[in-house]
Specification:
By secondary structure, the protein is mostly helical. The chain has a single domain, classed as Globin-like, CATH 1.10.490.10. 64% of the residues lie in helices and 0% in strands. It contains 7 helices and no strands. Helix 2 crosses helix 3, helix 2 packs across helix 4 and helix 2 packs across helix 6. Keywords: Heme, Iron, Metal-binding, Transport. It comes from Paracoccus spongiarum. This is Group III truncated hemoglobin.
Length: 150
C-alpha cells in the first residue's frame, strides 16, 4: 500500500504544526495510553520503563517524518507489532479513540484532522498486516469502527 498523501500539510503548518507540537501530542498520548485499562497493559508489558523514553523519542521521530517530512525516523514498527500476540481490534479502536481525543484537545482543527487521518490509515494497515501474519481470512473484514472516548 502506497501513501499518496503529501507529507506536509500547509494548513497544519500554518496552524503551528511543528516538532514541539508533535512532541506534546506524543508525550500526552502515551502517558494516557499507559494508564488506559484497555491498551495500558499492552504498553506496560512490551515497553519496559527503562525503554520508555527511547520509545517516546522513536514515536516522535515517526510522526515528525510522517507529518513534517523530517526523515528522522528509521524504525521498522511492523515486526514489533506482529510479535504482540494479544493485539486485536479492541486495542486498535481504543488506541484510535484515545489518539483522537488527544489531538483534538491539543491541536488546531486542521492539524488534529491530519493526525486523525494518518492514525486511522496506520491502524488499518497494521491490523491487516497482523491478520495476514496470523493467517486470518481478511476477505470480508470490515474497517474499524470509531469508538467514543469516555
Amino acid at each position: 500500500m502506497t501513501d499518496q498523501t503529501p507529507t506536509r500539510s500547509p494548513e497544519a503548518v500554518a496552524e503551528g504544526l511543528d516538532q514541539a507540537m508533535i512532541r506534546r501530542v506524543v508525550h500526552r498520548f502515551y502517558a494516557d495510553a499507559r494508564e488506559d485499562p484497555v491498551i495500558g497493559p499492552v504498553f506496560r508489558t512490551h515497553v519496559p520503563d527503562d525503554q520508555w523514553q527511547a520509545h517516546l523519542d522513536k514515536i516522535t521521530a515517526f510522526w515528525s517524518s510522517s507529518l513534517l517530512g523530517t526523515g528522522s525516523y528509521d524504525g521498522r514498527p511492523m515486526p514489533k507489532h506482529l510479535a504482540i500476540t494479544e493485539l486485536n481490534d479492541d486495542h486498535f479502536r481504543r488506541w484510535l479513540a484515545l489518539f483522537r481525543h488527544t489531538v483534538t484537545d491539543l491541536c488546531p482543527p486542521n492539524t488534529a484532522e491530519l493526525f486523525i487521518t494518518r492514525s486511522e490509515r496506520i491502524a488499518e494497515a497494521f491490523r491487516i498486516n497482523i491478520g495476514m501474519h496470523r493467517g486470518e481470512d481478511l476477505m470480508f473484514r470490515p474497517p474499524l469502527t470509531r469508538e467514543a472516548y469516555p
